[in-house]
């Protein structure tokens, strides 16, 4: 009986050890993930095979994943909207191709008779207007933020932005119009802006970035900037001075030698000691603003 009892005890021990091993291995199995690449070049990390977001995916060991290219990064929603509106194949932008002598194309034919002369005039006016290039609606331009800066201080800030490019280059250049946007940090300006925010009952711990915009030819600037870092995509609202504001100049058409000076308040989670993707219109750079 003692021997039989001993085997039972040993069986209990073996069973207990087996259960402990399963319990220890279970979290490891649950935490395992599947990494891979889709045919469109995007990458994924999922917990289960049925969660893979594409067909024909190639499984890749995490240590063998290729480097992430800028063209594979997710684009901000505002950027996608801008591209759709400016797409020449957008049916909205193709209205101008409607024949002038076809009233059905404009939805103006009246059943059972000819059209009145005044309706033809309206139709002709509509078609002639639609032949102009379709432009993307722009937000109302903000007024310059009253910071009490003298002309000399404004010139100094423009110079700071320009000279900072030697240490922390962050410039977007448009080859077509000669337009240029440069960004830089200025602790002194940031402190002054935070003081003005506090006087208006607002505060923010996000970094303040100065920018200047100028052009060598006829051009325009509407503050359509986007900043992307990791999972954060930020497009400041140019109508909100607590997100984007002007210190000098105005938005819209730029004259030669008439620079615009402004600022952007970034989200507090953006680390400017790390690279940030910056978009302006269809241009993009990667810059470290605080190296």
Provide structural commentary.
- With 291 residues, the chain is α+β, with helices and mostly antiparallel strands.
- 28% of the residues lie in helices and 21% in strands.
- It is built from five helices and 14 strands.
- Strands 4-5-6-12-10 form a five-stranded antiparallel β-sheet, covered by helices on one side. A four-stranded antiparallel β-sheet has the order 9-8-13-14, with no helix packed on it. It has a three-stranded antiparallel β-sheet with strand order 2-1-3, with no helix packed on it.
- The longest helix has 30 residues, at 2-31.
- It starts with a helix and ends with a strand.
- Mean pLDDT is 74; it is low at 1-14, 18-30, 97-110 and 113-144.
Q: H/E order of the elements?
A: HEEEHHHEEHEEEEEEEEE
Low-confidence stretches: 1-14, 18-30, 97-110, 113-144
* Global Rg: 30 Å
Distance between the termini: 78 Å
Mean pLDDT: 74
The portion of residues forming beta strands comes to 15-25%
Strand order of the largest sheet: 4-5-6-12-10
What structural class should be given to the helix and strand makeup?
A: alpha+beta
Largest sheet at a glance? 5 strands, antiparallel
Tell me roughly what share of residues is in helical segments: 25-40%
- How many extended strands? 14
Shape designation: globular
Number of distinct helices: 5
